[in-house]
Amino acid sequence: MKSMTCKDLGGPCDLEHRGESADDVINAQDRHLKEAEKAGDATHQEARDAMKSRWRHPKQSMGWYRDTKAAFAALPDA
Ligand SMILES: [Zn+2]
User: Fold this and answer.
1) For residue 72, how far is its CA from the centre of ligand 1 (angstroms)?
2) Spans of biased composition, class Basic and acidic residues (predicted)?
């Protein structure tokens, strides 16, 4: 298991997401951003919009995924 924070994934807070793969933490961050949006948390809105646009434009977002996966791969196993 490794962990990345909301901040590592482009968000504003230090909440940690743990997972076995980069996809796990990306999905956890997506859920976290959705919940923040539902709760009316304006500090997460920019990250939420960025994540939404990534789902809509997966090709243009490959760089972000690659960087996130590389960052995850470089983390020590906890
Ligand atoms: Zn957050």
Assistant:
1) 17
2) 36-52
- Ligand 1 (ion): residues with CB under 5 Å are 6, 11, 13, 15
Which domain covers residue 65, as residue numbers? 2-74
Number of domains in the chain: 1
Six-digit token string for 33: 């951003």
- As given in the structure block, the two tokens for residue 26 are 């990306």
d(CA 33, CA 19): 17
Please give the helix or strand (H or E) that residue 16 lies within, else none: strand 16-19
**Residue-averaged pLDDT of the chain:** 96
Give this prediction's pTM.
Answer: 0.92
Q: What is the pLDDT of residues 21-59, one digit of tens each?
A: 999 999 999 999 999 999 999 999 999 999 999 989 999
Q: What pLDDT shows up at residue 9?
A: 96
Residue 17 Cα to ligand 1 middle (Å): 10
